[in-house]
Amino acid sequence: MAAVNVARTRISPTRVVPAVSRPFAQLDYALALAIAGLVMIGLIMVYSASVYVSLLQELTPTYYFGRQLGAVLLGLVAIVLLQFIDYRTLRRFSVVAAALTIAGLAAVLILGESILGAKRGLFQGSYQPSEFAKLITVVYIADWLAAKGERIKSFELGFFPFLFLVAILCGLVALQPDVSTTTLIALIAFTMFFVAGARWSHFAILMAGGASVFAGLVAFMPHARQRFMEYVWSLMDPSQAQWHAQQVVYSFALGGLTGRGLGRSFQKTGPLPVPHTDSILAVVGEELGLVGCLVVLALLCVIIYRGYKIALETREDYGRLLAVGITTWLAVQGLVNIAGLTGVGPFSGVPLPFVSYGGSSMLMSLIGVGILLGISQQNKRTEAGMDRPLTGSRATVKGRNGAAVGVSWRNGRTYFTGVGYRR
Amino acid sequence: MVSPKRLFPVMALLVTVAVVIVLRLIFLQVVESDRLEQEHERVFGAELELQPIRGQVLDRNGAVLGTTGYEYRITADPSQIWEQDLSGTAAILATLLVTRTSYIIPSLDPPRLADGSEAKYSVVASRVSPEVAEAIRQQAIWGIYVEPVQRRYYPHNHLLSHVLGWVDADMRGNSGVEGHYNEHLRGNSVTVSKYPMLHYEWSTPRPHDGATVVLTIDRTIQATTERVLADALVRYNAPSGTIIVMDLDGYGILAMASLPDFDPNAYYRTERQLLVNPAIARLFEPGSIHKVLTMAAAIDSGTVTPATVYNDVGVIEVGGWPIRNWDGAAHGITDMTTLLSKSLNVGAATIASWMGWKTYYQYMMAFGLADYTGIDLEGEGIGQLKQPGDDLWTESDLGTNSFGQGVAVTPLRELVSIAAIASGGTMYQPHVVAEVRDGDRVYQYQKTIIGQPISKESANTVREMMVQAVSREVSSASVPGYTIGGKTGTAQIPDGPIYHPSDIIGTFVGFLPADNPRYIALIKIDRPQVGQYERWGSTTAAPTFSELAQQLVVLLDVPPDSARALADAW
Q: Domain residues for A186?
């Protein structure tokens, strides 16, 4: 596999051009435009949806909009910076980042502030490690799986350590308690495990185990149980749907085909609790109608499509797993959010990527697509033979490209977790 | 290892979810849109009327006569009260409401509605004090609610009850000031959405609270008047009576008392007859006090002067109907002042017949006897004055009307008409409200002339005659230190086709100071049950006037004649 990669990469030392000199030359414009469009719609809708909420909380009408704009600008800076570095550099930080994330999640459990009965934030709620955890999970698991190589098919060396890893991450988030994010992280991790080439039987066991743990969480966590039962009840009798779910349905219905007009939502003025966060698509649906919802969904689909396309175009395992992970994360989170709102699935507490209000979420999503854009550029540079060695990296010592080095490393060592191979 | 083949199932799954979502969105936003929109309208279209606070009624000095407070209504949502909690809930409520459990249970467990569903609202107790309501609220019983209800309070209970009127359970004013000024006192409610979350402080419309109404009535004078009247009714063993005290400058009412009265706080427990204000609504035949109007007409029309004399032979026939004096005697050659002082029916009929019916009734119309006074109180009655041309009028009515028989008026009407003499011939509209304070705006009552029945000179002449008449014959009405003018009346009471053989109404109209009248009062004592020879206006109403006036001159700060003479000398 590694051999194939190396062979198909046209490497010519004389044509090495530093990536830094032309950071946006190979930008995936379709992806970039889709992101830009979704972020724009998101900013407008956050402003529209949060005006009444801010006034009710005696804040300036642009309070939430301003904060969201700040997160977007910070995210843009991150995206730009990510174009200057090779995504493979991330591997160097993945272990430290994972450790910090686990520490952060633990800190939240011990020190964090409670929001609606769940501990999810630090520093007065301005920083939510579980948002960070989603990205780091992807970055770390991609690294871990890529390093595992073919041993992923092994029960003792692949399946079991992976299960252990996922259990720690998910367990910490589940204790917050945040069943939605736990489920999300598990789904992303399982998908990456599957795509990385795990055995069908292992994957089946994982899914069955995950489903039973999910069932257990739902059964024992009152909030989760309530939400799940509400969903079940609403399937049986739509008029019995709970207040929030019912108001979301009304929002969509009031919008109709073309909506009531931007800024004219009735539901955001009271019936919808926190309209600017998880239920923002309901405001989109009411103000911009089915058309608005389909535009948002279409842009999200473009991002997902480009994400997976980038994954398929990537010739080395780490990049491909990273692209799959990030794309799956955004896709699952987006669809879970919309499915919950439309009543296709149970109500969840996850934000709609790029649209919902939430600084951590926005920043992490933008960093995620920034990495995707970086992978895409790196692929094109590789295709064009403009690749350059990762100078200063231990990975470059043995080869001219990261993927080749990765393979050679994998072939040389045995290790239990990702931490092991660094030594 | 990481194969594209593994990615396709993932993408297929996501596409499936996306397609389901799109179908669901089309279902919600296109297919079901109208139905859900109607459902939404049913839920959020509900409106709520925010009630304004009813304005206060104050006396001329700002003392509160009528105000609005809150009581509480205890209600239940029976569908929220479980079967097993029923007796426990009822027991708690019964204890706090000081009643029996068996009285509470029916409201907590009412029969099911016609469609078989459980009732969602029932009233447990309709008027509960704030203390009890708070105690119930603190119990926080599931399904039990405490709703504030406005309630009108009259801190002085019976005081001024007839003038104030009352406010019913729907906060609608009835009778008197509450009725007449209901629109002002009530304020304007405002309709808002039932969902208060939709309205924030900066946009919530507030109801326009009711205006404050300030009366011309003085609480102290009213209380004094009521006490004097009550004493008089006891003294003369009379079942009822009325006193009106009026300022002659613009005819603002200072006191208006009628007994028996009622407590407007508990109007609903009062006999309906008692709720009527006798001073403005009950008609009576005014009797001899009416002679001053006849005299005023005769003087103003030039028919007589104070020096004119007539020969009183003890009887005169007008229109075939014989008219006799109260004492049945003949008084011989009599001048006009003596006619008034001795209150001679024959004399009154004589000058009326001299005038002729045309002139006489012109003057009676000018005095407004067939009109409302237009006082700003709900429930004013209108007098009955038969006139030539009416089916029932006969020429004999000219004779009897001249001394106050065969004509029916309200006490206020009679007072206002006679007041025209005391206030220089100009008749103003009587009123009880001095100003209405509606938010920042204040509307002040402007005095309104409703007629000029006689000239100023004629008025002064008749006024002087009234002063003379009182000083000569009615010492019982005198007020030490003050010269007064006035006229007594002993009115017979129609009892079917004839007059009651013994019962009378003793009346007195008096004003002071005599030379420059500032205040006028009418005293009316109904059916005094004292000795046969003491049932006269001069023996019941006149002494009551004296007693009242002696207190009023102090309260109203009227200097005695000697002090005013001294002031004039300066």
A: 29-383
